Inverse folding.
């Protein structure tokens, strides 16, 4: 018999979920501390306080519903919104944090396009996601195959579609973002107990050196680039060509000069 599938909020309380949260929290705090502006927004996953180290005066947490998370005693929800239709005007936010938001969204590409709309030029988006090309992703695919036969259990919560690291970079490039910083981590195998996770702790250092692309989670910081424009005047307003002052040209005939000298 397979176990009941747990949700994302409950999975974050497992040893593997806590291990993932610790790594992502360290990446977030080290990156958002040096991002400046006035308005910052985090969408989803209240277990991660992605704006804690940021110093912007106006910060919000957006959630898809008002349902309280059982593992978060004090939910800091500031607004309830559809991630694909944010209630902000264009070019109004300086920072948007997406911790697993794209994976939980019904239309991740539309959500990312909406984030591009609300960000100011040179604004930043910070994205955390699970890498399907990893030991965790391999176990999840194997568990899905076994569940079709009525056996096995999922290691990760079945709450959305995992977006590959290189696929995400392609989406960002198409929307005019430039990846400023990217890291992968969580190289320990897909085990459930804290004891076995600690036994494989050495793989974090070895994985970042020998197989960096196989980390279970990735962290990306991208900048919204807006190409500069060159203002052109009306077609009829053309600059007049400069005409130089006339210079007298003196031409001497060599034969005439010689005759004058003889006289």
């Amino acid at each position: 018999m397979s176990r009941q599938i747990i949700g994302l909020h409950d999975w974050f309380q497992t040893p593997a979920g806590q291990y993932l949260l610790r790594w992502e929290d360290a990446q977030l705090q080290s990156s958002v501390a040096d991002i400046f502006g006035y308005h910052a927004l985090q969408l989803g996953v209240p277990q991660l306080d992605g704006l804690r180290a940021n110093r912007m005066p106006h910060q919000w947490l957006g959630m898809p519903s008002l349902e309280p998370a059982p593992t978060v005693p004090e939910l800091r929800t500031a607004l309830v919104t559809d991630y694909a239709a944010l209630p902000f005007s264009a070019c109004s936010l300086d920072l948007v944090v997406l911790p697993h938001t794209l994976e939980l969204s019904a239309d991740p590409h539309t959500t990312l396009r909406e984030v591009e709309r609300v960000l100011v030029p040179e604004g930043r988006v910070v994205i955390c996601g699970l890498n399907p090309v990893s030991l965790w992703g391999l176990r999840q695919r194997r568990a899905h195959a076994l569940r079709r036969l009525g056996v096995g259990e999922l290691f990760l919560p079945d709450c959305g579609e995992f977006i590959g690291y290189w696929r995400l970079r392609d989406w960002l490039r198409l929307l005019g973002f430039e990846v400023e910083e990217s890291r992968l981590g969580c190289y320990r195998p897909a085990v459930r107990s804290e004891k076995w996770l600690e036994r494989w702790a050495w793989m974090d250092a070895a994985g970042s050196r020998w197989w960096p692309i196989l980390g279970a989670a990735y962290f990306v910081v991208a900048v919204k680039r807006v190409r500069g424009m060159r203002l052109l005047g009306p077609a009829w307003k053309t600059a007049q060509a400069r005409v130089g002052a006339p210079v007298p040209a003196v031409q001497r005939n060599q034969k005439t000069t010689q005759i004058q000298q003889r006289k």
